[in-house]
Amino acid sequence: MTQSRVKYGILLVAGLLSACANHPSPQQTMVDDRYLVYEQTYKAYAEAEKKYLNLLFNIERMPEEEELWMMKRDQMLELLQLRDLMLQARGELDDAVQDWEKHLQEAQAEAKQAQIKQFNPNFVGRDGQRSSPGQLLPGEVKGKNQRW
């Protein structure tokens, strides 16, 4: 009877793992979406930063150009906005990852709970863990003088 429970537990865990592998959880999908948003925002920020540095280089070469200074101010505002968006996207990504980790821990706890053997209700303590009266539990050693 215990072998059938063990087989059932193994099948349950295998089914849970295969279901998780084939169909991503909503938490995993959220992490993927948030990562894409963060990645796109980061790329936009990096591109704007390159433009800003190029603009600074041009201002250094031609400081008398009034238009370059106005472009610098506009580019700086764009950089600040993109930085705020990037930080917000990163925060959302971190939150989504934490939710996914919680989901994985819950799934692992459920799988572990399915693997726990049911103890014999007729006995108490460590004796309840024995499937038969003569079974040795982990940590118990059969003495040399004892016959079982």
> What oligomeric arrangement do these chains adopt?
single chain
- The tally of beta strands, per DSSP, is 0
Along the chain, the helix and strand elements come as: HHH
* Range of helix content: over 70%
Classify the beta-strand content into a percent band. Answer: under 5%
Shape: rod-shaped
Q: Runs with pLDDT <50, length 5+? A: 5-9, 11-17
Number of helices: 3
- Rg: 31 Å
Overall SS class: mainly alpha
Q: How is the main sheet built? A: none
Terminal residue distance = 23 Å
What would the average pLDDT be, to the nearest integer?
80
Characterization of the model:
It is a single chain. The protein has 148 residues and is mainly α. The protein has a domain at 26-116. Helix content is 72%, strand content 0%. It has three helices and no strands. Helix 1 packs antiparallel against helix 3 (66-115) and helix 2 packs antiparallel against helix 3 (66-115). The protein is rod-shaped, with a radius of gyration of 31 Å. The model is unreliable at 5-9 and 11-17 (pLDDT under 50).
Helices and strands, with pairings:
Blueprint: H1 2-22, H2 26-61, H3 66-115
Helix pairs in contact: 1-3, 2-3
Quick gist of this model?
This protein is an all-alpha fold and 148 residues long. It has helices at residues 2-22, 26-61, 66-115. The protein is rod-shaped and about 95 Å long.
Features:
about 150 residues; mainly alpha
